[in-house]
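Most newcomers find our protein records easier to grasp once they have seen one. Sequence and backbone structure share a record, each on its own labelled line. To make this concrete, we reproduce a full record directly below:
***
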Amino acid sequence: MALLAWNVRGLGNKDTVRALKNICFKYKNDIVFLSETKQKKRYLEKIRMKMKMDNAFYVEPEGIAGGLALWWNQGTNLSVLHFDKNFIDTTISINGEEEWFGTFIYAPPYEEEKQDFWKRLGTLRDDINSKWCIMGNTNIVASPNEKYGGAPFDYNNAKWYHEFLERAYLMEIQSKGGTYTWSNHRSEEAEICEKLDRVLSSPEWNFLFPRAIAIIDVAIASDHAPIVLLTNGVMKKIKKDFKFQSKWILEEECSHLVEEEWIHT
């Protein structure tokens, strides 16, 4: 099972839609969660159909800010339990497998709202032994090694997040790919990179999916990188885009091969 969570920072841009289509094609996602869509349901439905996703649930943006979209395919049994502007809480099972809780989040970026958000999230599960997985944009730098550039790491900014993890008995799933999931896309001394997007899970969920892994993909058309959760590990072959390397032109055989293939096509 493959689940995608991505802060797209607006889905009105053709480049963003193209990047989304490519990542959906690459991982064959069963569930897609998009935050900061900044678009109404009518527009998002057109994109969903292009992505060939079967079902949808939306949280409308407030003006031109925010907005959540959750898409899933046939064969995935998903029910929405709770939602607000910052999260969609669900139960999930696929092909009749055991059910678990999946919560898709876009945590508030403002310090004055973070305490309330993490406290609200902590009230979703009464049973600490729940099979629970959370993924999305936490808007939290959790440790010094998750930050490059800018102001020094401040533990107080992550206080409510760490207290939530401790109360809910959750841990972060190992990730592969890039170190950071957000960048201000500036150069040299002005560059800032942070890990803000992640996947959290309970021990019971980990027991259900012991080979689960999170992949941080390349950030394209957004300042956030997409994060993909593969519940059974990297088992299926991931499709990669073909990219022509300019250095191949220097190879003596290159022009002959291109000419030969052109003649036979």
